[in-house]
């Protein structure tokens, strides 16, 4: 998605959610080249203006979803007018259907993940985890490393987006919640650095697994790299995370989180909800691996099980003890608490970038990169582009062009597309989701402040990969 798109989805979420058969047919759709037309330039201008509003969200206090949703509608009007002018209006529906389906997969996947996290929060799971971490004497710096390491290890299996949401929930809970963080400058600084660390770790971890990111899934499905071949990216991915993680750790406070004054206890059914969440992630992977179905379907099936268990929680006498009255728990309350600005932002970004792709911009950029710069420089720039335009459409364009690349080069573009989004907060689904989860704390500008450290990790990871696979410029 533009990185936004990438963000959007893109992320694992989308990540894991793409349908192989549909991806194959989508790759065969060749857009007409309208890049030299005035209307297409207007579309680019609209996108840049909308993106500027997203960047300035903290200054103008305009939710990031609003400008991109409007921009998406305007860009697709331009797409429709452009194709009507050459008598190919029917192709517009094919492009739009592909982008809407991509969004539907991402939306449903994310909605389930957010609902589970909200339910675990309501059952007191994160408060209990906070109490355990504090009781063990971990400092904020220790929690920073624990959550970062877990994000790196879990994301190859659960996907980077879900992993980032989960780890960020832990960080926010340990810090005492949003109100406490906003009132304490030290805590706010810690949460910003911890969120950056989680985003970088989750994206890096997702790069060496077919299930960790949408781009790795796409490359694997296209047959460019065998399943086990992605493990070759682990050393470079580890370097990509550790370098900025070490740099940021020097700026962490040495304080310990304040213990909660009231006693923390889990509500009835908390462990069952955690177990259902793990089972749901396993379902998503199984649906894709065993049945070649979109992971989204496994997530939605898991949501169904949570809804059934929620009915039990709503009516059991044991829940009555916890909630003071039967019926207080309602699974739909947890659905409503999802970060809707983030979900709608994904819609706007995916359709914006999809519209630009339909006008021929992504194909033109991809052709320019591989035709003029050569594979190594092109693959490095793909990562930079993924922080701005999103890795999904960029990778679609690369796969559609199908340049002659060695496996080492295919792994390089997989690495850069996966971790390049960490350069900006809107460059990956994980970053976008965390901006919503830690609204007003972890922002575009707070992430941009440390982009230089993330860039050092990005450059170093490329160097490590080139040495391992003996690549040259």
Automatic annotation (TrEMBL):
Main location: membrane
Residues passing through the membrane, by range: 39-56, 68-86, 98-117, 138-158, 164-183, 190-211, 231-254, 266-287, 344-364, 376-398, 410-430, 450-469
Localization, UniProt: Membrane
Topology term for the membrane: Multi-pass membrane protein
Pfam family name, one: CitMHS
InterPro entries, per database record: Cit_transptr-like_dom (IPR004680), NhaD-like (IPR045016)
GO cellular component: membrane
GO molecular function: antiporter activity
Domain Citrate transporter-like stretches: 71-418
UniProt cross-references to PROSITE patterns, sorted A to Z: PROKAR_LIPOPROTEIN
Protein family per UniProt: Belongs to the NhaD Na(+)/H(+) (TC 2.A.62) antiporter family.
NCBIfam families per UniProt: NhaD_1 (NF038006)
UniProt-recorded name of the protein: Sodium/proton antiporter (NhaD family)
The organism of origin for this protein: Cocleimonas flava
């Amino acid at each position: 998605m533009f990185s936004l798109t990438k963000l959007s989805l893109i992320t694992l979420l989308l990540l894991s959610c793409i349908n192989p058969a549909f991806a194959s047919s989508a790759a065969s759709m060749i857009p007409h080249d309208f890049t030299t037309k005035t209307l297409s330039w207007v579309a680019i201008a609209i996108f840049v203006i909308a993106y500027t509003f997203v960047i300035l969200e903290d200054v103008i206090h305009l939710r990031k979803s609003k400008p991109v949703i409007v921009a998406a509608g305007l860009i697709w009007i331009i797409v429709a007018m452009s194709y009507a002018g050459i008598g190919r209006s029917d192709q517009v529906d094919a492009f739009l259907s592909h982008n809407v389906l991509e969004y539907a997969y991402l939306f449903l996947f994310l909605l389930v993940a957010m609902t589970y996290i909200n339910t675990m929060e309501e059952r007191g799971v994160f408060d209990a985890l906070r109490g355990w971490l504090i009781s063990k004497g971990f400092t904020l710096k220790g929690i920073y490393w624990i959550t970062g390491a877990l994000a790196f290890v879990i994301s190859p299996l659960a996907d980077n987006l879900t992993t980032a949401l989960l780890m960020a929930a832990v960080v926010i809970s340990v810090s005492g919640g949003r109100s406490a963080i906003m009132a304490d400058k030290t805590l706010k600084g810690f949460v910003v650095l911890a969120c950056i660390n989680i985003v970088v770790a989750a994206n890096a971890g997702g790069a060496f697994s077919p299930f960790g990111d949408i781009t790795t899934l796409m490359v694997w499905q296209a047959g460019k790299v065998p399943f086990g071949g992605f493990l070759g990216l682990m050393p470079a991915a580890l370097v990509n995370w550790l370098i900025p993680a070490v740099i940021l750790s020097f700026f962490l406070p040495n304080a310990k989180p304040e213990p909660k004054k009231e006693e923390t206890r889990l509500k009835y059914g908390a462990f069952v909800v955690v177990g259902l969440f793990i089972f749901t992630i396993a379902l998503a992977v199984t649906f894709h691996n065993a049945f070649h179905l979109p992971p989204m379907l496994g997530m939605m099936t898991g949501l169904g099980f949570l809804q059934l268990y929620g009915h039990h929680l709503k009516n059991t006498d044991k829940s009555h003890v916890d909630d003071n009255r039967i019926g207080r728990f309602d699974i739909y309350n947890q659905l409503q608490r999802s970060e809707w600005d983030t979900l709608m932002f994904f819609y706007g970004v995916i359709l914006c970038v999809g519209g630009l792709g339909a006008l021929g911009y992504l194909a033109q950029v991809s052709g320019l990169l591989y035709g003029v710069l050569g594979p190594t420089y092109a693959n490095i720039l793909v990562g930079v582009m993924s922080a701005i335009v999103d890795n999904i459409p960029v990778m679609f364009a690369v796969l559609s062009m199908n340049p002659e690349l060695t496996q080492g080069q295919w792994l390089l573009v997989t690495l850069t597309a996966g971790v390049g989004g960490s350069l900006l907060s809107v460059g990956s689904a994980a970053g976008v989701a965390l901006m919503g989860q830690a609204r007003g704390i972890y922002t575009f500008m707070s992430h941009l402040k440390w982009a230089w450290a993330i860039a050092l990790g990005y450059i170093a990871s490329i160097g490590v990969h080139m040495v391992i696979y003996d690549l040259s410029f």
